[in-house]
Amino acid sequence: MASFRVLLSKEQIHQRIQELGAEIDRDYPEGPVYLVGILKGACIFLADLARATRVPARIEFLGISSYGRGKTSSGEVQLTKDLDVSVQDHHVIIVEDIIDSGITLSYLIQLFKQRKPKSLRVATLLDKPERRQRPVKVDYVGFQIPDEFVVGYGLDYAEDYRNLPDVCILSE
Ligand code: IMP
Ligand code: MG
Hints:
Elements: E1 3-8, H1 10-27, E2 33-39, H2 43-52, E3 57-65, E4 78-81, E5 91-99, H3 103-114, E6 119-127, E7 140-144, E8 150-151, E9 167-171
Parallel strand pairs: 2-3, 2-5, 5-6, 6-7
Antiparallel strand pairs: 1-9, 3-4, 8-9
Helix pairs in contact: 1-2
């Protein structure tokens, strides 16, 4: 049977996101900035992060799949939904749920560079630095976490558990 241990409570997450929002406001005094959520994992983080900023922000989504139903990346990243607009000459922040191997993010950075934004930064709720296979630069990190598989607050295991309000360690 699956069991869950709370790693980050919804209160801790809320508090940290307010800090990240304030950092973004400081970094983009003139705005506007495109917050691009990577579906589906980042949708809940994006919704809270957007409301923690005061800078004029626009919301976009990009869909990718790399995981299938397992706990480790297939290593193959596929675009499942592209942006609806051009972000050329605009500030862009890629909003991710978690950086694990870094394979997904390095793919995304290549993709976005081709779109010629004015600037490109990355925000992630969670970072598992021990697991990195590709070096990637992350500008806004909510929490660094140990090498454990987590679910909740948007993160899934085989599409389940995204609606848990806390980030929990899943064990079976
Ligand atoms: P990466 O390409 O290995 O960095 O994987 C990034 C993606 O893998 C994230 O966007 C998540 O969808 C997924 N992922 C990585 N670690 C976890 C985890 O602990 N729980 C749920 N999803 C994860
Ligand atoms: Mg994801």
